[in-house]
Amino acid sequence: MKIGFIGLGRMGTGMAKNLLAAGHTLFLYNRTREKAEALASPAARVVSSPAEAAREADAVFTMLADDHAVAEVTFADGLIEALPRNAIHLSSSTISTALSRRLAEEHGARGRTFVAAPVFGRPEAAAAKKLLVVLAGDPSAIERCRPLADAIGRQTFVAGFEPWQANALKLGGNFMIASMLEAFSEAFALMRRSNIAEQQFLDVMSELFGSPVYKNYGSTIVERRFDPAGFALKLGYKDVRLALEAAAETSTPMPFAGVLRDQLLNALAHGQQDLDWSSIALAAARNAGLSDAKQT
Ligand code: NAP
Predict the structure, then answer these.
(1) What is the pLDDT of residues 252-292, one digit of tens each?
(2) Do 274 and 251 share a structural domain?
(3) Rounded to the nearest whole angstrom, what is the distance from the C-alpha of residue 125 to the centroid of ligand 1?
(4) Cβ neighbours of 176 (radius 10 Å)
(5) Is 170 a catalytic residue?
(6) 162: helix, coil or strand?
(7) Of 71, 126, 149, 282, which has fewest CB within 10 angstroms of its CB?
(8) Which parts of the chain register pLDDT below 50?
């Protein structure tokens, strides 16, 4: 297929490489052009605008930072007008359910198709084709998107017929991960206050929960591997904020999400926006009167 790929950040770069490896032809666009040029090849042409990435495509992925970026590229920069009638826009960013509904409506009104395709997995998983891909939208469009999901991930799930349902699922999932990070952060502070090695606690919890997500994030905190970020804390804050918005839209109380928002705000106030979101652990450590230093 001919695929436009817009947004070659930490996640988009790995996803685009795997679409190329699956034999697709790509039109690459990134606001900072050098990131697109790093992937240029005879099968991957760098273009100068989102509209150019869409014009000849069968499908266009957007993997941009947030609602603002997705709306700007889609509406102001002309992706939606340039997209051929039978082509599909797949949005893999973690965006609000409200923007997802708007995208579905505006594409539908112009005879275009919108499929939400958010993903779980960090940049290493994107590079290794190990993402979990969650699709939602019109069933026939979903079937056309399956080979693309297979090319970027290890498993695909279908959340429903309405694109925003995939975004709601993604926000619920990131709320779970953020809750795990905060739970780890508070427990690690308790361990340090109790003269117990964080690593020992992590070893026990890894056995108890048996999940690579616990093990990997736990060791990221123990080893203070917050810089460079795999997932920037400012984007993690965005996701908890969006989960709270989705909660308000559906009258779903999420008291834990309120606590997470405040802990992430604490981290932002301490200049941690570009650190990995697991650095939320520094907030719990500060609250417990502990330094940021690694325990030896
Ligand atoms: P990132 O590395 O910061 O990349 C963000 C991308 O968005 C870059 O290509 C950036 O372009 C572009 N961008 C930002 N604002 C823009 C604007 N106004 N106009 C045009 N382009 C704009 O972020 P990421 O970690 O890849 O995350 C991308 C999305 O995936 C986010 O929605 C995130 O929540 C989600 N996600 C991330 C992870 C993760 O672990 N990292 C996992 C799952 C989902 P420039 O290069 O010019 O800055």
Answers:
(1) 999 999 999 999 999 999 999 999 999 999 999 999 999 87
(2) yes
(3) 15
(4) 13
(5) yes
(6) coil
(7) 71
(8) 296
